[in-house]
Design brief:
CATH superfamily of the largest domain: Histidine kinase-like ATPase, C-terminal domain
CATH class of the largest domain: Alpha Beta
Number of domains: 6
Distance between the termini: 77 Å
Strand content: 15-25%
Largest sheet: 7 strands, antiparallel
Number of helices: 23
CATH architecture of the largest domain: 2-Layer Sandwich
Number of strands: 31
CATH topology of the largest domain: Heat Shock Protein 90
Strand order of the largest sheet: 14-13-19-18-17-15-16
Structural class: alpha/beta
Length: 767
């Protein structure tokens, strides 16, 4: 706060300044003449001023009178300081506008108290003025028309209107102040709304009205008028505040909708189909009873909403991405027979096949759409059920491939590496458990993958010579321990001379046999399991797997996917329920037949025959040798830390020098011509996929006439069509996850350096 003291006595001035400077938040200025003080007041607003009565160039009373003539000093506290108690002087000072008096000699404590009180009053005045200015600015800036009437006067004359009122009414402030607001009213005398408005103003009550008003130049408009008495209703009210909005467009829209309702309602009542109309903003202005009944909503609650706000989406039957109906309507073109999905309360879905056509005003302006729809929910449900089944298989396959095989790679790979290290027996047991869990996960995934490939017709079968006898012996050996663990007898018998060697897919044939033997052991508690191989025919072989287990009640459904015998057995026996479904699918894919005969409690016998022609005996495969990758430099890129570690350790143990990258961008930055002998790249990497890295490397090799570096894709997604895509991107080979030392060594065996007599010489162009 800023204080001025005007006193020609130097000692008194010094005392007054010292006494006032201790007041918190105050700055005190001293003047020894009226002229100097008034000159300072021209560019400085003081919050309080003290004037001595007698001064060299005038007196304090005249100074106060001059300041009061200035608007900015009209409410500033001005104190008169005098040494005499002349009542005439005091009266003159009061007439001039003095706020208070101090008598010499001044009591310092009294001085501070009086000044403090006056400054507090000044602060309150200033705060009130600021709030009033803010309120005035807000009201003036408001887009709402505001008018204030004096409720204490007859006819409640207007005492204030804002700029929005002038724009709404066309009248200036000067033309309307001191008048009653009824000059705007265009409603005829005696109408209900006009009489209600008059009574509300007379009683000083709250009220809300929709009525017709007239602008200055005579144009009528619909006005939304809200009245509020201030500070309270009734006799306490001093003012009536009126807020007004032009709602002509809204009223016209409502009237237009009413006309449309009347026109269409008769037609809509005759049909259970949907009828609706949209305005030029694509908002509903009419719906038939069938629409509101289906949506469990009153028609009035739907008006003003767009189809997007109703949550409806267009789904195209043949190709194309889903798009909102609202977006399609923005094109203002007719739409025919589009299926629209509507989500009802309770998340129920309704499908409506709808057609819409735009309509226009007489002048050609777009006015909206009229539409018709019929319920096709049952048809769409049947169609979607078929589509969903196919989509579910594909989605499930992709998810299983990426989400299961990646951790399987880490578990199986690390377990295999750690087993070669000397460890206590307990650690070896833990490692065996890890490997077993990984094998179980891999088995589940393989079952699902096989099931999807079989059902989609994408199963690929090999055609190579193999020994059917050896294959059966391997299965017998594989399951002997499991059978003995349950005290079961597992035997193998071979009959016929039609040729032990056959042409076909040995992996899939063995998978069929393993599934049947595994099932027999699982559901046999006592007795025996027998594998019978019949090689009597040179064009066909037959296999039976007979057990003395629990038997089957419903042999017809046993080959269905995800089926187990009953809940009790499912709880006691692990399995996905895909084994026999896959078995039948594999046999069918190999153009064979499979059947089962069984009775409850008497075991079951599964039989399958395959048209696999006999062939001459083949030599057994040469044993795989140990290889060395000494002096070979290999680049590994994988975004999974465990996978990088496994690949790096396998390659290092084979003797290779390894460079490891965390993603495709880093791999591309590290790669240089002639630097690496081979690249092992993951496919699904952040920032840059393995296929994109490979395309760029092949492009650079071609542009620079460089030799082609060997590249292998490492991915959990390794179905035939996916591998074909990797080869097309520039890869030479693909290793499917989970990976191990054996398949890495086999894939890189051509890099074996054990037979090299001289060290590998790097290309001198390599940097």
């Amino acid at each position: 706060m800023l204080i001025a003291v005007v006193e020609d006595n130097e000692v008194i001035l010094s005392v007054l300044l010292s006494a006032l400077e201790v007041i918190d938040g105050c700055t005190v200025n001293g003047f020894d003449s009226v002229g100097a003080a008034l000159d300072k007041c021209e560019d400085q607003l003081f919050d309080l001023m003290i004037f001595d009565y007698r001064l060299p160039d005038g007196n304090g009373i005249e100074a106060i009178r001059k300041l009061r003539e200035k608007e900015r000093y009209r409410h500033v506290p001005l104190v008169m300081l005098t040494g005499d108690n002349d009542i005439a002087v005091r009266l003159d000072a009061i007439r001039a506008g003095a706020t208070d008096f101090l008598t010499k000699p001044v009591n310092i404590e009294e001085l501070r108290l009086r000044v403090g009180n006056l400054l507090a009053m000044r602060r309150a005045q200033r705060d009130a003025a600021e709030r009033e200015a803010l309120l005035d600015a807000v009201i003036e800036a408001s887009s709402a028309s505001i008018a204030i009437g004096d409720a204490t006067q007859p006819e409640t004359p207007l005492i204030y209107v804002n700029a929005a009122f002038e724009r709404l009414s066309g009248y200036s402030r000067k033309e309307v102040l001191a008048q009653n607001c009824r000059f705007l009213n265009a409603e005829p005398h005696g109408t209900q709304v006009r009489d209600a408005l008059r009574r509300t103003v007379a009683d000083r009550r709250d009220g809300q009205f929709r009525l017709r008003n007239r602008r200055r130049h005579g144009e009528e408009f619909w006005n939304q008028l809200d009245l509020r008495p201030v500070p309270g209703p009734g006799a306490d009210a001093r003012y009536m505040v009126a807020t007004q909005f032009d709602i002509s467009s809204e009223v016209e829209a409502r009237n237009s909708r009413d006309r449309i309702d009347a026109r269409l309602s008769d037609i809509a009542q005759l049909s259970a189909a949907w009828f609706f109309e949209l305005d030029s903003d694509l908002r509903l202005v009419y719906v038939s009873r069938a629409v509101s009944d289906a949506l469990l909503t009153a028609p009035e609650e739907l008006y003003g909403l767009t189809f997007d706000q109703l949550g409806s989406k267009i789904v195209l039957d043949e190709g194309g991405d889903p798009a909102s109906l609202h977006e399609r309507l923005l094109q203002r073109k007719a739409l025919s027979n589009l299926p629209v999905m509507v989500t009802l309360p309770g998340h129920k879905v309704l499908w409506i096949q709808t057609s819409v056509i735009p309509f226009y005003t007489t002048s050609g302006a777009f006015e909206g759409f009229r539409g018709f729809g019929s319920d096709v929910s049952e048809i769409v449900a049947a169609r979607d059920a078929a589509r969903q089944a196919e989509r579910a298989k594909s989605s499930f396959l992709a998810m299983m491939s990426h989400e299961l095989q990646t951790p399987i790679t880490a578990i199986s790979g690390l377990a295999g590496l750690l087993e070669s290290v000397e460890n206590p027996a307990e650690r070896q047991a833990h490692l065996a458990t890890i490997r077993e869990a990984a094998g179980r996960l891999s088995s589940v995934f393989s079952d699902v993958l096989d099931q999807v490939q079989i059902e989609s017709g994408h199963l690929t079968l090999a055609q190579s010579p193999f020994s059917m006898v050896v294959l059966c012996e391997e299965v017998h050996t594989l399951f002997t321990a499991a059978a003995e663990a349950k005290s079961l007898s597992l035997t193998l018998s071979v009959t016929g001379e039609g040729g032990a060697y056959r042409i076909g897919d040995p992996t899939r044939v063995q998978q069929v046999l393993k599934n049947l033997v595994c099932n027999a052991i699982k559901f046999t508690e006592a007795g025996s399991i027998e594998i019978r191989l019949d090689l009597k025919s040179a064009d066909e072989l037959q296999v039976e797997v007979a057990d003395t287990g629990i038997g089957l009640a419903d042999a017809d459904s046993i080959f269905a996917a995800f089926v187990q015998l009953d809940d009790g057995i499912a709880r006691r026996s692990e399995g996905s329920g895909l084994g026999l479904s896959i078995t039948r699918g594999l046999v069918t894919a190999m153009q064979g037949e499979i059947s089962v005969s069984s009775r409850i409690g008497e075991g079951a016998t599964f039989r399958f025959s395959l048209p696999l022609p006999a062939c001459d005996a083949v030599l057994p495969a040469a044993p795989r040798k140990q290889i060395s990758l000494q002096r070979r430099h290999i680049l590994v890129a994988d975004d999974n830390h465990a996978n990088r570690k496994i690949l790096s350790m396998i390659l290092q143990r084979l003797g290779a020098e390894v460079t490891v990258c965390e993603d495709g961008v880093e791999a591309l930055e590290v790669w240089e011509p002639h630097r690496f002998d081979a690249l092992l790249l993951d496919i699904n990497m952040p920032r840059l996929a393995g296929t994109d890295v490979m395309r760029e490397i092949r492009r650079r090799e071609t542009a620079g006439d460089l030799p082609r570096v060997f590249a292998c894709a490492v991915s959990a997604n390794a179905r035939p069509e996916q591998v074909a895509g990797y080869i097309d991107a520039g890869f030479d080979d693909c290793i499917a996850k989970p990976i191990g030392r054996e398949n890495i060594a086999a894939m890189l065996s051509w890099l074996d350096t054990t037979s090299l007599s001289e060290p590998l010489v790097c290309d001198p162009r390599a940097s």
